[in-house]
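Hi team,

Filling in the usual template for the complex we talked about on Friday. All components are listed, including any nucleic acid strands or ligand strings, so the model treats them as one assembly.

SUBMITTER: L.P.
PURPOSE: interface mapping
COMPONENTS: two
RESIDUES: 712
SEQUENCES:
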Amino acid sequence: MNAVAVALEAQGARESTPRAERLVRAAERALDRVFGAHANPLRRLGALATWLLGWVLVSGLYVYVFYETSVDGAYRSVQALGEVQPWAGGLMRSLHRYASDALVIVTALHVAREWMLGRFRDFRAYSWCSGVPLPWLLVASGLVGYWMVWDQRALYVGTSALEWVGALPGVGSAAVRNFVDASALTDRLFSLLSFLHIGVPLLLLAALWAHVLRLARPAVLPGRSLAVGLSAALLALSIVLPATSMAPADLSQAPQRIELDWFYLGVLPLADRAPLATWALLAAGTALLLGLPWLRRPGRAAAKPAAAVVDPARCNGCSLCVADCPYEAVVMAPHANGRPGVRMAVVDAGRCAACGICAGACPSATPFRRGAPFATGIDLPQRPLAALRAELDTALDRLEAAPSPRVVVLGCTHGARLASAPVEPGTAMLAAPCTAQWPPVFIEYALRRGADGVLLTGCPPDDCAWRLGARWTAERLAGRRQPWPRAQVPRERVRLHWAAREDAAELAHAVRRFRAALAHAHAQAEAEAGTTSRPHADEPEARDA
Amino acid sequence: MPELARYTGQAVLYALFAVVVGVFSVWPPYSLLEPGQALLRLSFSHPGKISTECRTRSAEELAKLPPQMRSAQDCERARSPVQVRVELDGRVLVDESFAPAGLARDGASSGYRRIPIAAGRHRLRVLVRDDVRPQAPAHEREVALDVAPGRIVLVDFKAEQGGIVIR
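RESULT (copied from the run log):
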């Protein structure tokens, strides 16, 4: 037999990738080459948004220290920032504007990316829907911010926005009078605007917290190089093109040309012409976004995989699955056996991604027991560990006849296309929904059953379909996270190589290198034992982790 | 990709991002009005007259009422809608009736309209009727205006300033 390949398909992950997803992945991989995967802005959009929000808050607080909440002082105090302290207040004001603008771009890209990747259904519906109000709060905050400057643009923004709001049935236009009648304009308006410009961002922060509530270890910082690069770009922009005010607001004069910040104010020209149609458009867009998780193409049935299930009889309450779940879907609760002080894992099916990482974390998942049916404390109904062990057994049986060194590749269905990878002799490939579903004890099991080496693969950490699967796998292998392989497992016979689904050839190359390394080690061992042996391949490269 | 090429690529992309942010934060400029246009704004908040006649309570009636409710006049709460007609050079720009606010229709009527007009000389006539009784007099004001481009002409109604205010 020249080759042995067991390629497993699971959960429809092998079905053809939608065009939108391919587009996003192509863009991400292109930027990977420039920024590196870890600092790729497309892979860090959520974290970039929080970083920019941080800049907006810090610069906004500085600007607010010098802001005068009065009709006469509002414009003057903002203008003085650039004139009196250009390298402090002026810079902060510009950063406040440009970081806010960048925040809109990043937020829009974040929404588009998640939509194109299809990340809004099932267990992601909560995060998706809780994110929908965020752009509204962001734009509302920006609109109020532009009022505070009290220049001609502020006057336009105030009247236009309130005309637009007033067009809603039952609202009325009384509020617009604050911006058209000088006698109605008082200092209290600017106190109110300040309150709104602080209050709405606070609401935004609260909504942001709710947005990431169901994510374990949400990425809120983009990484040093990305944070530095983006901050430097905005700083340079603030120096080259400082944010400025238009002429002071004059209630008797309409500006002929308004320098509009299209990121925040772009909706107003549309609202000027068709206020109710603009409301209808935005309401429809919002409703569409909110309903997206439940919209499916006709004929395409919902294929939500079953959630993980806990076997109370085998759950020892160790809580490793709770610590590893990327979506906070597993919690500890009093044990079903009712014994005081004993706890067990409980799965919230609505939050469960069916990734199987919890099963890989379960210490009761040992494949060595032969006497009883293979079972574990927590498992995936449609992809149980018993099935994975059976597939591994089959693969190892076939490998017995294959040339040495024999390698088992344990991967995931979202990583490199194992089935389409060039097949190596003496290699068996298996895929679980996530690489972290393979309990580390399966490595020892494969080695003891005749494999010369085990190569773990899957989507790379920055491209992980289940957020944390690659990270937990690496940490388990390194002995930094439980469960880890036992000490007697020879580490030189275990290798880790991440490969995205587009990198099948690279994975095959990594397998060849690993086999060569194993052959070399085997030859060396035989030479030391006084025997001779012909190595199967060249010296190994030390590229893989 | 070589280090130098990577850093150059990053610099180019950061610069591109900054350019997009900088450009669209002020450009393209927007014009609310066409060249040579001015703006006429109608904006008022005025409570119309009580829509029905009040009745004077008798001494017996007042005695029966709790002390804090002994108002000499017994009036319905509903107010008249405020009718506004604005004509510019004889052309009707606004001719509407603005209903009082509130469930009991006892609040002020508010109105707001934004109407672009051509700059130049005009005759502006404003008529406000805040009482539904047919014999009630209407407020009327007519002025000659020379409006510069971009100028905002505000039409308001302030009872304490004699009624219709144009500025």
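MY TAKE: DSSP finds 18 helices and eight strands in chain A. The longest strand of chain A covers residues 407-412.

Thanks, L.
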